[in-house]
Amino acid sequence: MKKIALVTGATSGIGKATAIMLADCGFNLIITGRRNERLNELKSQLEIKYKSEALPLCFDIRNRNEVCNAIENIPAKWKNISVLVNNAGLAVGLNHIQDGLFDDWERMIDTNIRGLLYITRCVAPMMIENKQGHIINIGSVAGKDVYENGNVYCATKYAVDALSKAMRIDMLKHNIKVTNVCPGAVETEFSIVRFKDDTERAKATYDRMTPLNGDDIANVIRFVISLPPHVCVNDIVVTPTSQANALIIHRNENQ
Ligand code: NDP
Ligand code: 8X3
Asked: Which long-range contacts (CB under 8 A, 24 or more apart) does 76-81 make?
């Protein structure tokens, strides 16, 4: 029987690439996001190309009732979740703190912290009952260093860093692995969302450098989940070769 993985934010970017990688590794997939059409397209792709079963769950991760209803009502055969990838997240806006917009701040805090907590609270007891599991949180280099205008987004990713450490401690005796995967610049829809559909500004984020793509992060997750039962990667930072950390990127004059 195939193992089961749940990936949040599977409609785009890192989450979509991770769902496809997990299907390639032989998992059946629970995929979540708000864009139902994309979830159904991905379901077909996973079923046809990888012969994996897929269960799409369409909900807003910020809504506690929607999250709990969706997870509590999954059919029994989907409840033995081995891998949870807490990926859904976003940055919105890039302002100095004194100019920040409350709506932007609330979207980031509610998605990146509350949403991750709601899902984890619903799935972790299932893993504990099954005496096995691996929770992979998608943190960020923004959760390792703070940069100008990053303020609230950075704070949410520092929270992911802290929660990853906390989960590791709290679930140690239950044989649950927890890994905080911290990417640098990955070209996805991330910058389009951050700059509110200003595609020129989004594109400029990756000017004169070669960013990572979703598959690069999926491949890191492939490695992390492939390790033997007695080995757990707790924290891993992955950047483009031309990026040292959240603050320093080398932009090539000739690129
Ligand atoms: P994308 O914008 O491409 O994907 C974000 C995903 O999150 C989408 O599937 C989106 O689904 C989902 N999502 C966002 N808000 C909600 C919500 N309220 N409810 C449910 N799902 C939601 O960006 P990335 O793939 O780049 O981002 C994935 C993760 O990686 C995020 O946590 C991000 O912070 C992190 N990250 C990204 C980096 C980058 O440079 N790209 C670097 C470091 C970390 P939908 O819109 O359908 O709901
Ligand atoms: C996304 C990477 O550097 O834009 O988490 O914050 S960064």
From this structure: 78/4, 78/28, 78/30, 79/126, 80/3, 80/4, 80/126, 80/130, 81/4, 81/5, 81/6, 81/30, 81/123, 81/126, 81/127, 81/130, 81/133
CB of 82 closer than 8 Å to CB of 5: yes
How remote is the CA of residue 253 from the centroid of ligand 2, in Å?
Answer: 22
- What are the structural domains of the chain? 4-238 (3.40.50.720)
The residue with tokens 């990146």 is 112
Q: Which residues contact 231 (CB under 8 A, 6 or more apart)?
A: none
Residue 50 designated active-site: no
Q: Is the pTM of this model over 0.90?
A: yes
The pLDDT tens digits for 233-253 are: 999 999 999 999 999 999 998
Atom of ligand 1 minimally distant from the CA of 157 = 34
Given 50, 118, 153, 158, the catalytic residue: 153
